[in-house]
Amino acid sequence: MMNYLFDPAHWTGADGIPNLIGEHLVYSLIALAISAVIAVPLGVYIGVTGKGVFMIAGLANALRALPSVGLLILLVLLISPAFPSKMGYILPSLIVLVLLAVPPILTNTYAGIRAVDAAAVDAAKGMGFRTMKILTDVQLPCSLPLVLSGVRSALLQIISTATIAAYISLGGLGRLLIDGKAQNDYSQMVAGAVLVALMALVFDQVLAFITRRIVSPGLTRRTVNSAAAADTVKIPVTP
Questions:
Q1: pTM for this entry
Q2: Among the four residues 116, 213, 220, 222, which has the most C-beta atoms within 10 Å?
Q3: What does the record say about its membrane topology (predicted)?
């Protein structure tokens, strides 16, 4: 594995590792953006209105159980005849990744909205806040930790599953796995697996950092912990 990763020949050209990483990221981030656009508003609507809760327990769990590779091949057979270009293969891959990423974002957004303290909502109503202002100023900020946790989980699943794009001759780090298996080059396969794992770990830490920066300290208990730590500091008293 180390010989493969440190070979300069594998870091240049269209099949070089940097280009494969870039393709993998493009697939992953586009799928995440589409998933968030679908799942966050839907989760907010279900959480606020209480309508469509069956989607959380039924549809979301059903999507998790879909066989990714089988669904990908089926979608390629259905869609590729309508798109003679490369889009006939990219679109099925994105659909599979979106279906995989929607459930964690949807369920966490719904759970976050429902977990908001009813007293806070009642206080906002008492101050004259309208429904939309309550949502934007109270419910969404309070539910942000759970929403971001769902996004974080979805991105990790997308990055690890985007390797299947190589199964239908697309790019990404899955190429190292597919090509390595075809050539019986196990060092190439291990290198691909390691790079995917490292990418997932890096983005997990990036999203964790973003969460710490944009979520209110009161919701993450950073303020409480800081105060508790300050209380434990012993100040020496001079006689």
A1: 0.85
A2: 116
A3: Multi-pass membrane protein
